[in-house]
Recover the amino acids of this structure.
């Protein structure tokens, strides 16, 4: 199976490399036609530099474009610069500088300036042409620096951030992109204005009228940079985008009709000229492309772009940082407490009973110097006497006579051992109680540290908040009769649209109608909400319909036929997060059932409240340890399915191995940690895997042998219910006449949801 997977990866990587080479050549080919104020642009050099290892395909694409357009002599500077830059980056010994924006931009600018000067000397030209060559070289270096900076930020955050200087850089790249494709030699239409229309309408969809106005103005700048004669009519894009953004609530078709109507009126008002009909044709083509573009594609692109951060986003980031700082502070305090405990324990071990007796009896004795010469024998004798008094709670003169016959203070020695032993035991008992309190405090600090970390992580997951949509959701619930509503519409780190609503009552309306209304309001298809109620507060969590769906089925059998020591729960913490919790109590019967039920119930409540699996496990471990004087522990097996990102996480504490069945192969997962409730520091086994369509995840209790679980290899093509039924029958058959234990089998089959189902 690993060999097949490696071969598949190799073929996939090869196809990707070929595709990237073709795209680099095509991009360089198109960029080679670019013009800046009528002068050949050097954007094809920027494309070649940014293509990384695909410099040669970019060079060939540029050469082909110059050959087709008959401007090969004008492109000598660009072609030579591409070859030199590619050669320098190839022979550079340090890979750290290859993607450094400053280094690469300086290299690009230097190469372009060098060959521009050579060209000006070899083929003398006027001052205007030479100046444009220099300006074009500097612009090429700036574009490379800006593109690499934006790319680095994109790789770090996962989205194109339009805040601060990064937003300015993105705007410059957009202007250069429009300028480059505007020069494409298509006499009927203008690609720059078509693309500008498409992007402007997409900006209207995400950022309303402000987005339309800004993108329209940037498009005008790009067209002006390439062809000033076309900029006059293009100016209306900003006005049209500003006006059509006010009609966003009526849908895409209405936006397009309003945009075209406003544009047509503006063109007529500006006066009909030779570019009027071409301009309207470009606007019409861009509008048609916007309507024809699948809505999921538009939404996916929109999620990759994060606009200007508002105060809500900044407050969320600040809150996350403060919680993380508080968590680290508690961690530091816990570390200091651990050091204090270790120092006290070390000192307690050094303060033995025999040392105390010697300090009381022997220090002022006349024979002390004589006895000290026999140090090893003396230490051994005192250790034996201490062992006797600790074993029998009393020391007699005969014991002293036997081990220290030469002592001149036998009576005082015997009396001191017995009296100090009583005080010594009381001090040790107090010390043990204080130590237990310190350990308990350390556990509590550790739990608080984990809880704060979870809260910080949850707050940090919010990518961007939409205050306007949040206000509309609050208003809708207020109209339904729910006062004091708290609502938040946001995009999380997995680029999933979410809506969280908190009300101070139980929701009694139609959930289907509510979900449909909110879906229409935020323009995303939401799934039915996950509702959690604590006291008088109800949380309703909506999210986009996830990419994956899962079918979960189970099989259980008790060893005694009455009480099963296994307990499990399947629940949703949100639309995209599904959990399976399985616990096996110590032994069998009613006592084991209570321990496992206690663990599963508490884990479910903790995770539903927003805690992570690790924090829930730590709290369960602490609670089982202080649950009673009798020994109490249980295994803990948690599976977290993230159905939007397509991942699964396992947490195992004393639990049996789980299995992943994929493409006819079987992978064992976890199973190397102690059960919860045994040790103060019980580290669970945590692992994570990527999910694919058709995967089957198998979770079992220890009553199912591994050989039985591996029978899933014979269950290819079965659904989840058929799998657990077949494995359950096999497990029952194997336990007849042998060791009888409770049996629980849970199977989860993963399916990739069809886009048409969303």
């Amino acid at each position: 199976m690993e060999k097949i997977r490696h071969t598949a990866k190799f073929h996939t990587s090869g196809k990707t490399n070929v595709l990237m080479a073709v795209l680099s050549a095509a991009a360089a080919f198109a960029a080679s036609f670019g013009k800046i104020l009528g002068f050949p642009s050097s954007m094809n050099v920027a494309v070649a530099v940014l293509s990384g290892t695909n410099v040669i395909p970019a060079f060939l694409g540029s050469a082909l474009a110059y050959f087709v357009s008959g401007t090969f002599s004008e492109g000598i500077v660009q072609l030579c610069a591409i070859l030199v830059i590619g050669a320098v980056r190839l022979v550079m010994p340090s890979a750290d500088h290859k993607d450094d924006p400053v280094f690469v931009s300086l290299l690009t600018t230097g190469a372009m300036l060098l060959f521009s000067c050579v060209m000006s000397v070899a083929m003398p030209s006027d001052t205007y042409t030479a100046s444009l060559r220099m300006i074009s070289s500097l612009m090429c270096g700036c574009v490379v620096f800006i593109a690499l900076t934006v790319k680095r930020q994109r790789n770090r955050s996962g989205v194109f951030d339009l805040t601060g200087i990064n937003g300015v850089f993105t705007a410059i790249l957009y202007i250069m992109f429009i300028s480059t494709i505007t020069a494409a030699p298509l006499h009927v239409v203008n690609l720059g204005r078509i693309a500008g229309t498409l992007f402007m309408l997409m900006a209207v969809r995400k950022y309303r009228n402000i987005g339309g106005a800004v993108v329209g103005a940037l498009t005008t700048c790009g067209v002006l940079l390439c062809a000033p004669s076309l900029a006059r009519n293009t100016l209306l894009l900003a006005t049209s985008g500003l006006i059509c953004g006010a009609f966003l609530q009526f849908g895409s078709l209405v936006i397009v009709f309003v945009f075209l109507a406003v544009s047509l009126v503006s063109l007529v008002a500006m006066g009909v000229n030779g570019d009027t009909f071409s301009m309207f044709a470009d606007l019409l083509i861009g509008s048609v492309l916007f309507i024809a573009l699948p809505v999921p594609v538009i939404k996916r692109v929109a999620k990759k772009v994060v606009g200007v951060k508002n105060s809500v986003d900044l407050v969320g980031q600040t809150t996350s940082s403060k919680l993380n700082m508080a968590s680290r502070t508690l961690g530091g305090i816990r570390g200091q407490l651990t050091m204090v405990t270790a120092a006290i324990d070390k000192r307690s071990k050094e303060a033995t009973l025999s040392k105390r007796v010697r300090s009381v009896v022997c220090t002022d004795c006349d024979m002390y110097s004589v006895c000290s010469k026999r140090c090893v024998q003396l230490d051994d004798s005192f250790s034996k006497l201490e062992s006797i008094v600790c074993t029998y709670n009393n020391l007699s003169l005969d014991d002293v006579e036997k081990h220290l016959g030469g002592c001149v203070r036998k009576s005082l020695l015997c009396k001191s051992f017995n009296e100090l032993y009583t005080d010594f035991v009381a001090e040790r008992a107090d010390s043990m109680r204080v130590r237990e309190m310190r350990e308990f405090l350390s556990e509590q600090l550790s739990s608080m540290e984990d809880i704060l970390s979870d809260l910080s992580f949850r707050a940090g997951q919010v990518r961007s908040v939409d205050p306007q949509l949040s206000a509309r959701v609050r208003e809708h619930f207020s109209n339904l009769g729910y006062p004091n509503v708290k609502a938040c519409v946001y995009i999380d780190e997995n680029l999933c649209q979410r809506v969280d609503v908190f009300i101070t009552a139980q929701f009694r309306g139609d959930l289907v109608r509510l979900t449909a209304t909110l879906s229409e309001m935020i323009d995303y298809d939401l799934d039915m909400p996950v509702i959690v109620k604590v006291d008088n507060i109800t949380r309703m969590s909506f999210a986009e319909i996830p990419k994956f769906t899962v079918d979960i089925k189970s099989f259980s059998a008790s060893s005694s036929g009455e009480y099963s020591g296994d307990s499990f729960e399947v629940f949703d913490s949100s639309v995209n997060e599904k959990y399976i919790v399985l616990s096996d109590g110590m032994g069998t019967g009613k006592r084991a059932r209570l321990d496992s039920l206690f663990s599963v119930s508490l884990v479910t409540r903790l995770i539903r409240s927003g805690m992570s699996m690790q924090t829930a496990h730590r709290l369960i471990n602490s609670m089982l340890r202080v649950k009673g004087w009798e020994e109490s522990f249980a295994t803990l097996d948690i599976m977290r399915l993230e159905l939007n990102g397509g991942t699964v996480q396992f947490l195992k504490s004393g639990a049996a191995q789980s299995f992943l069945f994929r493409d006819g192969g079987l992978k064992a997962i976890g199973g190397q940690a102690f059960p919860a409730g045994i040790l103060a520091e019980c580290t669970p086994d945590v692992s994570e895997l990527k999910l694919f369509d058709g995967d089957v995840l198998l979770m079992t209790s220890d009553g199912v042998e591994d050989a039985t679980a591996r029978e899933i290899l014979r269950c290819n093509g079965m659904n989840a219910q058929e799998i657990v039924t077949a494995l359950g029958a096999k497990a029952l058959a194997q336990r007849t006449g042998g060791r009888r234990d409770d049996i629980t089998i849970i199977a989860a089959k993963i399916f990739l949801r069809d886009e048409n189902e969303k």
